[in-house]
Each structure stands twice: as structure tokens, then as C-alpha cells.
Amino acid sequence: MKVAVAGCCHGALDKLYETLELLQRRHNVRPDVLLCCGDFQAVRNEADLRCMAVPAKYRHMETFYRYYSGEKKAPVLTIFIGGNHEASNHLQELPYGGWVAPNIYYLGYAGVVRFRGVRIGGISGIFKSHDYRKGHFECPPYNQETIRSAYHVRNIEVFKLKQLKRPMDIFMSHDWPRSIYHYGNKQQLLQMKSFFRQEVESNTLGSPAASELLQHLKPTYWFSAHLHVKFAAFMQHQTDSKEELPKATKFLALDKCLPHRDFLQIVDIEHDPNASDSLEYDPEWIAVLKATNSLINVTPSSWNMPENNGLHAKWDYSVTEEAIKEVLEELNHNLKIPSNFMLTAACYDPSKPQKHREPVHTINPQTTEFCAQFGLTDMNHRIQQGKEEGSVRAEYEEEEEEEMDSAGSAEEPSEYNTDHSGLSSINPDEIMLDEEGGEVDLSTCSVDPSPDHPPDFSTSFSDIRIMPDSMVVSSDDAMDSNNEDLEKSGASKQVEEKSLNERSLKRVGCNENGNSGMKKIKRRNQAIYAAEDEDKTE
């Protein structure tokens, strides 16, 4: 089947689907599914905008709300993971995944689904060591810390994914697995993104958690985004035994959805022609969720996952074939994910903007139904219970203080860990939220919807490479690699030139408003935002 893979969407959903439509019209290529590797920005209204960890000038309504309201419907099944610039309050409603709009499915904090027999997994967010061992405790309204920590990867999601034993076809992460750049054309990468050099040479660029998953899952394909550059790699995995056949992963990172950028790739992937055309649950993943349910943590307290170190009675939460069979029996062997999307928030109305709409913590019926069906903990319900219990406890303590005629109250220590000194990697492409203290203005948002009239297709479209047989890594893409298998997988220069001649698609411009004054930003971000301003003048 043909799989379209996109990098950072940044809310430009109309532009993405228009590009796919043009691809079909000009080249008769119609993808069966679209995978988006984060920064999807499923923004429904002004309150959602306030929950995105970006400066106010980057908060734009874009076009997702039209798909949420039903005004439009995604023309192709779309599956996405979260990045570090999301409407976190919306995605938080679906910790185990679910529909954010008809035909648009979010994989959750971590998730695995099946489509036409192809197993698709993913993990949302980016890695930050200071939040990695915490629970998912955040909820709206967010403060200056939780608006960011809400999208940080947690160890429990990695632990769940590491319990999987069955082969993985496709896996998605927003940030790159650490060290993957050593398996591709590193020199070319550093020519395009010279400010990566220090972290590449010190092997600190990317996510160690994603790298751990790459080593464990060994998927056939791994797709990422985040660093706003196209990069391909081919990783041959070591075998655990002589009898085991060696596995390899084809890695591809893509750029953001802007004119003249490599943000979209078509990949032809083998599938089961007898499998269902519906999006389906993965029975092993459901069994793992059930097995690890007791490990759920919704507090900011740090804790480690069970290990075989003598401190835990149980550390292996992988599931047996019998447990998987039980899941199938629970579902009567009907794995189809129900089309149970429903609105949980008011939709943006361009004629009646409400810039002061406040975000609220919402329990999504999809999550309630999913948890009830499989006997899982609804994290949001537990967070709300904790808040209510904390409120009652606070009122009781306040009454006690009044009875004791206390003269003033001592300042309570912060429950959040604000020590950032333990960061194992500085991501040069993460937006600095403010040039001084790194704070986000939570009280403002810019409502700037896309124009109602469709853009002219004859204007600029980004390049799209169609690889009908499989995603290959060309010899140019992997110039640094000494792996002979990598060279075998690369397309010949003639095939590449033919592909270049065939691809003449340029994506619709992203409604930029020209150059704007750039504030001073930290050195590690200067290059990328200088490049972004250049994009706006193209």
C-alpha cells in the first residue's frame, strides 16, 4: 500500500491535503494512509491556542477546526503522534489514543494500531531528562512549567513499548533516535544544519529513549520530524543469536510543511491484501496496556520502572499468547476501532472570535469507553480525583490554621522539579518560549485563520519524491556509511535523476506575512529562525 509520510504539520492541514490531491491529479498516486510525525496542532478554538507552548506570535488558528466541526473531512485516513508544539489540552483527553476528528486518529502518549495488516506504532512528545521519570500529572489550565512538561516523554510509555515482542512494521517519533545520524550522510546533514555539529560529535543530539526503542523494536521503517530537515539513514541491527535473521531499519526524517521544503514522502509498503481496510486495535498492545495498568502514575513524583535488579518482584510485563488470545475473545475477534468521535469543546467560529476563552480539563467519552472496555485506568479521571481530594485537604488545613489563629502561612515548596541541569541533550530546533525567562504569555492568542478561498495550485508546492518499490537510501544520502547493505539498498544515480525530473510539485505557500522583526534569541536557535524568515520571503 502507498503510505504518505509528513514531517511537522504545524496546523497546515488544508495545505497537506491539497498537496496530496495535486499528487493524485498529476501523477495518479493516491496514498492509502497519511502518517504525521508530530506538531500536528489539533487546535479547536482559542482556548486550545493558549495551551500550545509557543510565543503568541506563532499562535494561529490554521485549519484543523474545520475538520473538527465537520465542515470538512480528511480525504485520507490520517494517523499522527504529538510533538512539542501541540494543543496539549486536546491531546491529553486521549492518553490511549482516539479520533480528534472524523478520519483523523491520534496514537496517544504511545500506541500501536494496525491498518491493512501493517503494524504502526508511535510515541508522542520529546525527551527531556528532568521529566522522564515523572507521571502524567499535568492538566489544564497549565502554568509556565506544565505547559511544556505536558509534552515530555515519560518512562512508562517507553517501558510499555519495550514489552512488545511481535515485529513492528512502522514506528514514529517526533524527535530523532539518538545516534541515528551516524547511519546516514552525516556530512550532508551538517552542511544543511551546521549548528548540529557539536551535539552530533558529542553524540547528544536526539532522544536516548527513542534510541532505546529503536534497538528493541527494530521496525522496518522509522519516521521522525522535529529538526526540520530531510535525512535518511539505514541501520543494520545486531542479532541476538546465530539462528536469528538480521533486521534493518530504514529511517527517514522530514522537514516542516513550508514552500520548497521536503516535508512529504510516498513510501510503498507491503501489506496483507486480505486484511481489513478499517483501522484496527493491535491485540498485543492492548494486552500490554492491561498488564501494565498497575504502573500508572499521575503525580509529579519521579520513579523508576521495574527492572531485574533485585528490587522488584516483577519486571517482565511482556504478554503471553494466551493473554493476546483473551483480548481477541473480549473483542469477539472484531479489532475494528469504533468510529466514536464526538465534540468535547466548542469549535472556533470566525464570525464570533472569543480570544479570552479559558481551557478546561475534560474527560473524553472515547477514553471512558476504551478504559471501561479493557479495564484500564482513565488517567484524566484520576487526575481530577486527585485535584478534588487536594482541594478538600487544602480547605481542611486552612480551617485548622484559622482555628489556631496562625499569623500568616509559610510559603509552600514547589511540587515541580525546575532543575534543568540534568538535560542530556539540547535540541537546537525547539522554539525558545521567551528570550528572557523562557516564559509563555498564557493570556494571549492570535486568531489568524487561513483564507476561505483555496489557493492557486500553480503556485509553489514542495518537492515530493515517489518511491514505488520501497523507501530507499541513495548513495548520496548515506555517503558516510560503510555498510555494504546500505549501498545495495540505494537507488542508482540514474533512477534518482529520473525521480527528480518527475517530481515538479511545489506545495502551496503557507500564508506568511513577510518578514517581521526578529527578537534576540539564544545562539542555538538563531540559525533555524533565520532560515524560517527566509522561508517567508520565498
TrEMBL record:
One Gene Ontology MF term: RNA lariat debranching enzyme activity
Lariat debranching enzyme C-terminal domain location: 235-380
Region ranges (Disordered): 382-428, 441-538
UniProt keyword annotation of Phosphoprotein present: no
Residue ranges with Basic and acidic residues bias: 382-395, 485-505
Annotated compartments: Nucleus
Protein name stated in the entry: DBR1 enzyme
Protein source organism: Nothoprocta pentlandii
Taxonomic lineage of the native organism: Eukaryota, Metazoa, Chordata, Craniata, Vertebrata
Gene expressing this chain: Dbr1
